[in-house]
């Protein structure tokens, strides 16, 4: 089964994802953007380039996702593994829909979801680490263009739309709590998810 971790920059996804390695040592841990392919390298160039075109950036992220799916996610799922991904398709629906808000693309979230629908694999469950944009921007250090509070407020509104559309897929965790409490809540969510499946 495929479980993804989503949330704003600085919500604590990577902290949780690393801690989960000890809890589920047999799971396949992976992430987007990928950190072991040239597609991921191209994505990181776009993240670091303040002038990168937002539509071109969407397609780079989506190319990285396609490679991630065929190379890592689908083979692991075919082997019956538990796959835990730090970010996945919802990051595109939330972030790139915000980046394309004032572009020529009408209804950017629906457009991005449509591109994915043709080939992607929806997560079985998604744990959403919920944090306000100011805390997110402060924790992440505002080091790239995606980490500014005003932009993150749009991204957060997009995540809320996604949760509203599929409430059964998402588990919301209050990520403003201390790290050990966030981890307890995520572990409890995982226990429920694995019991259900
Ligand atoms: N629950 C928390 N409370 C306070 N600080 C946190 C918490 N979780 C993570 N942090 C800190 O916030 C920063 C970003 O955390 P990280 O796990 O990298 O977030 P993300 O992967 O979502 O961007 C790190 O310095 C981390 O130590
Ligand atoms: C996967 C993904 C990430 N991003 C953004 C979120 C982050 O600002 C940046 C890098 O992701 P990531 O390395 O997960 O950052 P963080 O650990 O700070 O959350 O890329 C998108 O805009 N779209 C995507 O599809």
From TrEMBL:
Pfam families: Thymidylate_kin. One of its GO terms (molecular function) is ATP binding. GO terms for cellular component: cytoplasm. ATP binds at residues 7-14. Residues 5-184 form the Thymidylate kinase-like domain. GO terms for biological process: dTDP biosynthetic process; dTTP biosynthetic process; dUDP biosynthetic process. It catalyses: dTMP + ATP = dTDP + ADP. The lineage of its organism: Archaea, Methanobacteriati, Methanobacteriota, Stenosarchaea group, Halobacteria. Its EC number is 2.7.4.9. Keywords: ATP-binding, Kinase, Nucleotide biosynthesis, Nucleotide-binding, Transferase. This is Probable thymidylate kinase. Belongs to the thymidylate kinase family. InterPro entries: P-loop_NTPase, Thymidylate_kin-like_dom, Thymidylate_kinase. It comes from Haloferax litoreum. It comes from the Archaea.
């Amino acid at each position: 089964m495929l479980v993804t971790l989503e949330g704003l920059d600085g919500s604590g996804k990577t902290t949780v994802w690393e801690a989960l390695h000890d809890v589920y040592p047999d799971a396949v841990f992976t992430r987007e953007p990928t950190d072991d392919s040239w597609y991921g390298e191209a994505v990181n160039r776009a993240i670091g380039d303040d002038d990168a075109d937002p539509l071109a950036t969407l397609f780079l992220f989506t190319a990285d996702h396609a490679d991630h799916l065929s190379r890592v996610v689908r083979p692991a799922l075919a082997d019956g593994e538990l796959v835990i991904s730090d970010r996945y398709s919802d990051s595109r629906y939330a972030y790139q829909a915000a980046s394309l808000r004032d572009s020529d693309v009408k209804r950017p979230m629906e457009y991005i979801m449509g591109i994915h629908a043709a080939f992607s694999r929806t997560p079985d469950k998604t744990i959403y680490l919920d944090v306000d944009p100011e805390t997110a921007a402060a924790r992440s250090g505002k080091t790239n263009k995606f980490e500014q509070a005003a932009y993150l407020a749009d991204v957060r509104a997009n995540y809320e739309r996604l949760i509203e559309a599929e409430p059964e897929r998402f588990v919301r965790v209050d990520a403003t709590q201390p790290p050990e409490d966030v981890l307890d809540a995520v572990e409890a969510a995982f226990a429920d998810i694995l019991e259900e499946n």
